[in-house]
Design a protein that fits this description.
Blueprint: H1 57-71, H2 75-88, H3 93-102, H4 111-117, H5 136-162, H6 180-183, H7 209-222, H8 232-250, H9 255-268, H10 284-299, H11 304-315, H12 324-332, H13 338-343, H14 345-351, H15 354-374, H16 376-379, H17 386-403, H18 406-419, H19 422-427, H20 432-435, H21 441-448, H22 452-455, H23 468-484, H24 488-502, H25 506-509, E1 511-512, E2 515-516, H26 517-535, H27 539-554, H28 568-578, H29 582-595, H30 600-615, H31 623-645
Antiparallel strand pairs: 1-2
């Protein structure tokens, strides 16, 4: 369907009157979920009280939905809801400001990535619904409209007061003189015509002091579109956080203010809040943010935004489990908010709850399938939110690999590969930079579960340059498989082909969330060459390279889940144990279980070390007491392994730490 300019919102200013006027497209703007009925989105019941100038029922309904969507990080759909609110309640200044905030940096899209890709000067002359999302120009436009409307409202109320509308006994700003635009849409007696779909609010009121201060703060963030990324923190990011601090200091009990302030600080330090894994805060911002969130959650324990930010704050800290209470509302109170449901699993994976990690990512996938049906324009493959959708699959498959859920992992990994397939990137090659790295999950799943012969049957992509990560992963997998099956010569050839692909310049520009594909494939390269050397009997050289792979993995940027699908310590520890290096293998597995608590692969590896230690009389000078301690730890680990095997999803019998090891070892 081709949409004419007349049917889409268009912004324009008329001299001193800064009111923004919008045309309508049908009853609601393009691409909206239904507001009622069986297919409406269920994002919980949170309502911000006392939003100025939202007397119009539809305007208020769209505002509520927009706010819930924004807190759910479905920013594009949220911005459309705020636009719809403005069609029904054009004096809702806060809606303008929140449109701007939706188009602004957030915890997952900030810094160079945001300021380089969200600058669209042509959007200045384009209707909102035709602008690329997110757009600095749209943020500027709406934040300016918000500030301008505040001044306009003050102006008309000053006139009303001077003309006697605000006489003795009336509160300031409560006069009944109306601007002509409001008069035109009522029935002549100062009330809205209930039969008029285009009816707007009664006499617009002055907005609250809180809203005015929030609007001014958001304007600080959005007032310089096209700003150089290198100047963004100094010119807008830090000033916005400072402005939000002032709003928070005056209104510390308002949950949305606390959320906006906390997020402003977190964006400045995104994904680098703490030194990992020491848990030391990287800046005073982090300490301040921690205080804000903990204080606010005591007052508003179920606020989606506060819970969301607290999970991100805690996941890199020394105590991620502190966020488990905040995870409870995220799991069950926002049925169609896929990203919120998923967020709880950032903590699950860190505390070793692979079953919950898989279950709630699966639930998030189902929730986002609803979103894709409700609003394909804002949740489809070319939408910004689609990155969050594939992230759910990634985390689910990762937890399935770690928890030994072979069938479920393969099911989801194969499904994702059919979604982010070569045809998708042929049609939209600009998506490769940040989505093509999700196209090989089933390959890594097959490696984890030792499906060597099946891996040799996978067809390579037609365009190996376009599908760089998948092409490289297939060569990596084939080389591992050939080495495991004893064909060392062919394994070396495939390893050479893998190197030729991974060293292509495009690998530096591809990302998997917080890491480049080049860095991820460098880990694979060291691991692969180490395993080939091991199969040749060159064990010492092999262990040097496998230790290098472990270090390279540890040096990757912090991410959830880890960028490397299979912990490299499993291969190193398993092969060290196989060659009788029990002490080093034990150390390797203990470190692995610090990073990945209660994972069956690490447990099996450590059990193998402790049993060899006990059976070989290698418990040191501690004698009987040392043997007793080792026996007690073995019993504890076996109990943990039994618990793992009781999972509804675990269907793979883990008997070695890595399928590259000989199964008879344990």
């Amino acid at each position: 369907m081709t949409l004419s300019d007349e049917k889409l919102p268009h912004w324009h200013y008329e001299g001193p009157d800064p009111l923004v006027k919008q045309a309508r497209y049908g009853n609601v703007p393009l691409g909206f979920p239904p507001l009622d009925g069986p297919n409406k989105m269920d994002l919980g019941g949170y309502v911000r009280p006392n939003v100025s100038n939202t007397q119009n029922p539809k305007g208020r309904t769209f505002f509520n939905l927009g706010l819930r969507l924004m807190l759910s990080y479905q920013h594009e759909m949220a911005s459309k809801c705020f636009l719809a609110c403005l069609e029904h309640s054009p004096y809702c200044v806060l809606a303008h400001a929140l449109v701007a905030l939706c188009h602004s940096p957030n915890y997952n899209f900030k810094g160079d990535a945001y300021y380089e890709s969200a600058n669209h000067p042509h959007d200045v002359q384009i209707q909102d619904l035709l602008c690329t999302f997110p757009s600095q120009q749209v943020a500027d436009r709406h934040s300016k409209a918000a500030v301008d409307k505040i001044e306009y409202l003050r102006k008309i109320h000053r006139k009303a007061n001077k003309s006697g509308g605000g006489g003795k006994g009336k509160k300031k700003g409560k006069g009944k003189q109306q601007p002509q635009s409001a008069k035109a849409n009522n029935n002549g007696n100062g009330t809205e015509n209930p039969d008029d779909e285009n009816a707007i609010d009664e006499t617009p009121q002055l907005i609250s002091d809180l809203e005015a201060k929030l609007v001014v703060a958001i304007r600080v963030l959005c007032c310089q579109p096209g700003l150089s990324p290198s100047l963004s923190e100094e010119m807008v990011g830090r000033p916005y956080a400072d402005a939000m601090r002032k709003v928070y200091q005056k209104y510390p009990n308002d949950p949305d203010v606390a959320y906006c302030f906390a997020e402003s600080l977190m964006v400045l330090n995104a994904w680098q809040l703490f030194e990992y894994p020491t848990g030391k805060a990287v800046s005073p911002d982090v300490t301040e943010c921690h205080e804000i969130l903990e204080k606010s959650l005591k007052l508003h324990s179920h606020h989606a935004g506060l819970c969301h930010m607290y999970v991100h704050l805690s996941e890199m800290s020394a105590n991620p489990a502190q966020a488990l209470e905040a995870c409870k509302p995220l799991r069950c109170e926002f049925p169609h908010a896929g990203h919120l449901i998923h967020m709880a699993t950032h903590i699950d994976v860190l505390v070793g709850d692979n079953e919950n990690c898989f279950r709630y990512n699966y639930n998030a996938i189902l929730a986002d399938e609803q979103s894709m049906r409700f609003s394909p324009q804002t949740s489809g493959k070319e939408s910004f939110y689609f990155g969050y959708i594939v992230h759910n699959y990634h985390m689910a498959v990762y937890s399935g690999i770690l928890g030994a859920y072979e069938k479920k992992s393969m099911e989801l990994a194969t499904k994702l590969s059919s979604i982010v397939d070569e045809a998708m990137f042929v049609e939209s090659p600009y998506l490769t930079a940040y989505l093509e790295s999700y196209s090989a999950l089933e390959i890594h799943t097959m490696i984890r579960f030792g499906r060597w012969k099946e891996l040799l049957e996978i067809e390579p992509p037609k365009d190996k340059k376009l599908m760089l990560y998948r092409a490289a992963s297939i060569k990596f997998a084939r080389s591992l498989a050939l080495a495991a099956l004893g064909d060392i010569a062919e394994a070396r050839k495939e390893a050479d082909r893998f190197d030729s692909i991974r060293k292509q310049p495009d690998a530096e520009d591809r990302i998997l969330h917080n890491n480049s594909v080049a860095d991820l494939l460098a880990v694979d390269a060291a691991m692969l060459r180490g395993e080939i050397l091991y199969r040749e009997g060159k064990h010492d050289q092999a262990f040097v390279l496998l230790r290098t792979a472990v270090k390279l993995q540890d040096d990757l940027n912090y991410d959830e889940p880890w960028g490397k699908m299979q912990p490299t310590r499993h291969a190193l520890g398993g092969l060290l144990l196989e060659q009788g290096h029990v002490g080093e293998a034990e150390e390797v597995f203990r470190k692995d279980l610090l990073f990945h608590p209660r994972n069956p692969w690490g447990i099996v590896g450590l059990l193998g070390c402790l049993k060899k230690k006990l059976g070989g009389g290698c418990c040191g000078s501690g004698g009987a007491n040392a043997e007793k301690d080792v026996s007690a730890e073995i019993s504890e680990l076996e109990e943990q392994l039994t618990t793992c095997r009781k999972s509804d999803y675990m269907d793979f019998d883990v008997v070695v730490a890595c399928e590259c090891c000989k199964r008879e070892t344990n």
